[in-house]
Amino acid sequence: MRAFAWHCDNEGVLSPLQRRRGFAAIFTGVAVSTTGFLASNTVNGLIAEDLTGVTTWSGLPAAASVLGTAAGATALAAIVRRVGPRTGLSLGYALAVAATLIASAAIASRQFALFVMAMFVFGIGFGANRLARYVAADLYPPEQRATMIGWIVWASTIGAVAGPALLAPSRDAAERLDINGLIGPYVVCALACVLSTAGMLSAPRDMDVRIQRRDASDQDTPLPRLLRARGVTLALTSMVSGQFVMVLLMTMTPLHIRHEGHGLGAIGLVISAHTLGMYALSPLTGRIGDRAGRLPLLAAGVVTLVAASLLGMAAGGSYGRLLAALLLLGVGWNLGFVGGSALLTDSIPAAERVRVQGFGDALVWGGGALASIGSGWMLEHVGFAMLSAVGAVLALAPVPVLVRYRTSSARAVAVPS
Fold first, then answer.
1. Does the pLDDT of residue 31 top 90, yes or no?
2. Of the candidates 346, 15, 4, which has an alpha carbon nearest to the alpha carbon of residue 148?
3. Strand partners, 2
4. In sequence order, which ranges of 138-263 are alpha helices (DSSP H)?
5. Which of 31, 75, 115, 346 places its Cα 20 to 30 Å from the Cα of 186?
6. What span, in angstroms and rounded, lies between the C-alpha atoms of 149 and 157?
7. What is this structure's pTM?
8. 2 versus 179: which is more confidently predicted?
9. Strand 2-4 versus strand 213-215 pairing type
10. Residues 6 or more apart from 178 whose CB is under 8 A from it?
């Protein structure tokens, strides 16, 4: 009996035209879906506070979404590995559409539990957006992968601008229809995910060609052994740490701003600055990663995240300082995310790559979910300054691993006299 398994190393399988079409489809799907995600995700805490009447649970919807991505990352990666990236990512986006519609109904009927459940399912589907960077990287040779990851991350810049900018118009449109204004951003999200599904289906069918045949009796390399591969620990530590710190501060910033007396427009501006920091410099970040190596990106990410957290501590009620802190927070996340994604891809053989990438994303988004869950409690009980202080400490987590990696690299290249 012969069985098929996937790996996503499409470099050399697709023609140059097909590769460009595939990359364009991935880019479009990420750009449009991020627009919808940021339009809806920005109001999650506001919806939670309105539905429950307390701040404590305000981080739960965002946590459910991220936890869904974490829980579904391995499963979605397995689907991509079995049916191919074109079909797998399309199925993910389609699931996100259904979940967003359920979330809209939950808001209208004021059912908080249903809203949280819908956010969990949405997170599973939106994992397609998160895995897209790896699919794009596998279309190209190693010396171009960080650049391609950078461009896919940059695609989210479109969403960073358009998503928060659609908050007020979508709310106004919903209120004119005599429905809850906070449903408006969710309608935007549903339409965006429909367009992302269509975009991925426009990719070349050859992206889903079975490119590795193996016996059914063959077994995959044990995951623990793959995780011990050179560079994997550093890549995962950097991405998990960066995601945790970013979510910890970003999730509670809209509530902190509202508590300081500012409106939805002010919240949208700060989140736009933050998401621009996350995505806008990505082509440059990727280019540096391909030319100077992955380690400088990871080190710079740690320094920037610490600086952002310290500025958040000192911000108080200053709107300008909060805006600057969230901008730096986005830049620090970007450096670790692009550098870590490229290093992880470099460190694993193509046939096993998707499994490790899926597991890595499960850790990354799982860490983000924990940050979301704890952020609401921390904001209510210890305040935004202490929350930022915790972020500054956690941002240092990759430092010991980075030092150990550099030391082992120096020993590996040393030539005995």
1. yes
2. 346
3. 215
4. 142-165, 167-176, 184-201, 223-227, 232-259
5. 75
6. 13
7. 0.75
8. 179
9. antiparallel
10. none
